[in-house]
Write the structure tokens for this entry.
Amino acid sequence: MNESATTARLPWVALLPTLVVALGVLFLLGLDQGQALAAVQGQTAFDMNLIHELVHDARHAAGFPCH
Ligand SMILES: [Zn+2]
């Protein structure tokens, strides 16, 4: 049996959800300053900055402009 006849190529559109998730994780790990939790916590999210505090050392280690 021909291998290429049974193996369908993944269309590039199928990679879009992966790209969206990857960009979301990149934002959370590298850039978030309270925006991600603001919908739930309101102004408190910017005051407490929980995600920033959680990943702070990783941001500096990775070279992100943290603050
Ligand atoms: Zn920092």
In short: The two ends are 59 Å apart (CA to CA). The chain has six helices and no strands.
